[in-house]
Amino acid sequence: MEKCGISKLDLKRRNRMQILRVIRESGPISRVDVASALEITRAAVTIITNEMIEEGVLIELGEAPVCAEKLQKGRRKILIDINVNYKFALGATISENQINIGLTTLNGMVLDKASMPIDDKTPSKDIISYIIKQSNEMMENSCLNKDNVLGLGIGIVPLMWGRLKIFYKDGVLDFTSFIDKISSGVDLEVQCANAIGLWALACTDARIVNSHQMNQVFVHFGNQINMAVLNKNELSSDYQSYTYMLEKHIVNPGGRTYDGYPDGSVKAELSNVAIKNALNQIYSKENTPVLFEVTDGDKSKIDIDKLALSVLRGEEPVINLINGLIEKFAVLVNNLACSFFAQRIILHNVKITDKQFEYLKKGIAKVTGEEIAERVVLSSINDKTNFIGGCALVIQNCFFFRGGI
Length: 405
Prior knowledge:
Structural class: alpha/beta
CATH class of the largest domain: Alpha Beta
Number of strands: 15
Low-confidence stretches: none
Shape: globular
Helix content: 40-55%
Strand order of the largest sheet: 6-5-4-7-10
CATH architecture of the largest domain: 2-Layer Sandwich
Distance between the termini: 32 Å
CATH topology of the largest domain: Nucleotidyltransferase, domain 5
């Protein structure tokens, strides 16, 4: 007779996963409130959490603060939280022009980091060697061994897949060969994924807001524009292979053309190449004298700050171009917010000042209204901390999904 069921270890892992999830979403919380959230007995929660405290997975923070007006009789609640120093995570990101690697705690606090610029001529073996070397050095410098580190998570942007021999197998990305090469020099569990999704994961606000988990859309700007979707704080499984499909979205029907894409697509209207071409069409000493002056007559010197200066000084052709781009981007924001019921639209690798960001949001609001425009935020991850995406991968898979076991 075939036996069905769940093993004691799997049941233990599942219970611990649920407790870690509640703490992650709520922050410091009492055992009573954990039991209420999970609808299990207080006794069961006490037994499980006490074991996790003994192992160092959780810590007790002391009594919960209470308001004097609402003071009640009986024992005060004792708050528990995740011990962020229980284990550590190594992460790396391989983008078109840089490798980032770093070491973090369970809450993403950076302990060490390093980076190396790369270009089209950088051999893949040099990329692999650098990640191996830095991983081992960071562990040694922090007096850590494989028992203290969850693993090494590596995010790779889509434009780098071909160079690193990462291809599709049975319809999904196969990182096996790349993982084997890294594993040959690092005595850790190695996991790889699309960097776009990992950055989204690292930017996730896991909190419960108004009793609801949030939907979030993450948009990465680079030589390619990519997107990942977080549905109720969970990364959509399709992110792994299809993040680049955002470039096929239409933001200006019948607009600019780009071979292989619909007319008026994101690729044709909002990509780096499209913006550069649009600027070239208006740039001249006669038509844009301010921009021409601040760039010394050199188109290659055009950047966001010089464009902002030109707008500030009232240069109409530049103002019209920038506002037109913002209008098209607003269409994209509106469609993403409505299609995915997203409470946040996170923009990554957008290097603008606070004033420039406010100008962007005001332009978006003219198209979408204030409510949707306010959902747009900038990513907290920058060029020097891109590796946090890799850390987020192993923290999720090797800690939260395993119940801290």
